[in-house]
Write a structure and sequence with these properties.
heterodimer; A: mainly alpha; 80% helix; extended; B: 420 residues; alpha/beta; Rossmann fold; six-stranded parallel beta sheet
Chain lengths: 216, 420
């Protein structure tokens, strides 16, 4: 049993890891075809995995409703919304429009989902303002440097700011292209090395905790 | 008198006329159009097929006023070169081997030769395994001089030799990591303090004291992304501590596969902590794959359950600030770790501690102190030192190459070019 739970997954990881690391260096169409096939497999597996996710969702919220936990009303709304969307989707054959006419499913998507998503995204503007206010308070030397740099960049990025402080345009570009870009590249180099090191550990079975954390 | 004048005038004009004739004939000889020399064509190496490369020698008439045409026809026999399809035309002082993107170890000829690569698209349709005739014509005004057509057959290749530097560097880095792991097994390696990770215990302790849960997010990507794997590995360490302290753990997911993996990791962590009875299957739960629906749900959890500590590990997009700002408003200790450089400013602004980039990958080593993990970290540091050295040496060599118009720095620079 331990062989099936441990050794087989590690063997599959080793073989597929090495094969697909090597695939990067093989330009032959057969290699590309293999990658495409595996990507499709992944999509199919993800489709089946969605059953896991939905069953988890149903279970968690069913428990909340049954136990009448705090906020169980939200769980009830979720159940009603999900089941009615599934019913409408099946009734519309999963199509948003037929012959240019919007179906009920299309209506749910366009007039409920999209505005709700837009609302969440729009809140971001207010959150940026509150986060900026908190971080730009010059409480320390570092915060003061951040504040000055931010003011210069903001002035340099809007026409009125550049009109009032002509130097801010060039200075802003210099901050973005030299200071900011070099720091970003340093971070990216570190991230890339970390990614490669983690991949090596996973491929060669040195990192196994993603299988369940055991060391046997 | 008139005869003397005429004789002296002739004597003065004659040398000028001879000089003029000689110089005109010399100029004429230099710019006389001739068929391109040393033409040869071959399958473009290191590609997936559907491509041919043509080489020919540079000429004395290589200037902007003269143009080259590359002509193509299917089959191995050519009755009339002029009837072939013109697939490219460019000034004669362009398309040299030295201008190509191929590194020095795959360049097919000396840098002063002309090179043109034909690829599928823009009126060119090259089929693998079929022979084509190719020629190059030199063109000025209405005059065209054709080279003798040559034949070549496009084929797909099994190895991309252009990326061998990438492979060598990957193997070198892999070797360094293995060496560092071996060293870490023999002696202890110093790890600098990472405040964000040192605060993990503090955050869990605070949650325990307040009797509130801990919220842990694994990011927007699925298990194929290293940042999600790193987040799942850290979850194992965090879960072990929450099990030891008996604190509730909430892990909402965007991906069902990640959820299944994290359930196993959490269960194992509770087993290792000796508290399997405290493990709850529902601690890892799926919400939705949709970005903002997930964000709204997690924000709701934060506001209703008021977790004492929020962990944001993995990769994030626009939802980063929506999550962390809501968490900050509830007064929770917030620890973030991400490789998403665009979201780092938001995390730094709204979280108490942020693991920047590679620190996310270092977290596992820091929390476990296992030799394999710590050795990998040392390997990464050696890799960074190497890259730093290459950046410095490369900058100096590139500058010298420009200053002295030398090609030899390219031997070094090509090895580290296009490593991605």
């Amino acid at each position: 049993m331990i062989f099936l739970r441990r050794q087989v997954p590690l063997l599959i990881t080793l073989i597929t890891g090495l094969v697909f690391a090597g695939q990067y260096y093989v330009p032959h169409p057969a290699s590309e075809q293999m990658l495409t096939s595996v990507t499709k497999w992944l999509q199919i597996i993800s489709g089946f995995a969605l059953v896991l996710g939905v069953s988890s969702l149903f279970h968690v919220h069913a428990v909340k409703i049954r136990r009448k936990e705090a906020g169980w009303g939200y769980s009830f709304v979720l159940y009603v919304s999900m089941l009615s969307t599934i019913a409408v989707g099946l009734w519309s054959n999963g199509k948003e429009a037929v012959d240019g006419t919007m179906t009920a499913f299309g209506w749910v998507y366009n007039f409920m989902m999209v505005p709700l998503q837009g609302t969440m995204f729009a809140i971001l503007a207010f959150f940026i303002a509150s986060a900026a206010y908190r971080s730009f308070r010059a409480r320390s030397r570092e915060a003061a440097v951040l504040l000055i740099a931010a003011v210069i960049v903001m002035m340099g990025r809007v026409p009125l700011g550049e009109y009032l402080i002509p130097l801010s345009g060039d200075l802003s570009q210099w901050i973005l292209n030299v200071l900011n870009a070099s720091v970003r590249r340093a971070i990216l180099i570190g991230v890339s090395l970390g990614t490669v090191a983690l991949s090596i550990k996973i491929i060669f079975g040195m990192e196994r905790s993603y299988l369940g954390g055991g060391k046997e | 008198m008139n005869r003397d004048n005429a004789r002296s005038a002739c004597g003065a004009i004659l040398p000028v006329a001879i000089t003029l004739c000689l110089s005109v004939s010399s100029v004429f000889a230099q710019t006389t159009l001739a068929p391109p020399q040393d033409l040869h064509a071959f399958d473009t190496p290191s590609d997936g097929g559907g491509s041919l490369t043509v080489l020919w020698a540079s000429s004395s008439f290589d200037n902007a006023a003269t143009r080259y045409q590359v002509l193509l026809s299917e089959g191995t026999t050519v009755q009339d070169s002029a009837a072939m399809q013109v697939v490219a035309e460019f000034p004669a002082n362009q398309h040299y081997v030295r201008e190509s993107k191929w590194p020095w170890w795959t360049r097919p000829a000396a840098g002063d030769q002309h090179q043109f690569t034909l690829r599928n698209g823009r009126g060119v349709q090259l089929k693998d395994g079929i022979s084509y005739s190719i020629t190059v014509a030199a063109l000025r005004s209405d005059v065209r001089e054709f080279a003798t057509p040559v034949q070549a057959t496009p084929q797909p290749n099994w190895i991309n030799w252009n990326q061998m530097n990438n492979l060598m560097l990957a193997l070198l880095f892999g070797g360094i990591v293995f060496y560092a792991i071996g060293t870490a097994r023999k002696r202890e390696i110093f790890l600098r303090r990472i405040p964000g990770l040192a605060a993990v215990d503090e955050a869990i302790g605070r949650a325990t004291e307040l009797g509130k849960p801990i919220l842990y997010l694994t990011g927007a990507h699925d298990m194929s992304d290293p940042s999600t794997i790193a987040a799942a590995v850290i979850l194992g360490r965090v879960a072990k501590r929450t099990a030891a302290y008996g604190t509730d753990l909430l892990v909402p997911h965007r991906d069902p596969i990640t959820m299944a993996v994290c359930q196993e990791i959490t269960k194992q962590a509770y087993l290792e902590a000796g508290k399997p009875d405290l493990y709850k299957d529902d601690s890892n739960f799926f919400i939705t794959s949709d970005q903002f629906s997930y964000t709204a749900a997690v924000d709701g959890i934060m506001l209703r359950k008021k977790p004492a500590a929020n962990f944001f590990m993995g990769h994030y997009f626009a939802e980063a600030l929506l999550l962390t700002e809501t968490g900050a408003s509830t007064g929770a200790i917030q620890i973030a770790g991400t490789d998403a450089d665009h979201q780092l400013p938001f995390f730094v602004t709204t979280c108490d501690y942020t693991l920047i980039g590679e620190e996310l990958y270092a977290a596992s080593a820091y929390l476990s102190r296992e030799p394999v993990q710590v050795g990998t970290l040392r390997g990464q540091d050696i890799g960074k030192a190497l890259i730093l050295g290459v950046l410095g040496i490369g900058a100096i060599l590139a500058t010298l190459g420009v200053m002295f118009d030398a090609q030899w720095p390219q031997l070094f620079l090509d090895v580290f070019k296009d490593v991605k």
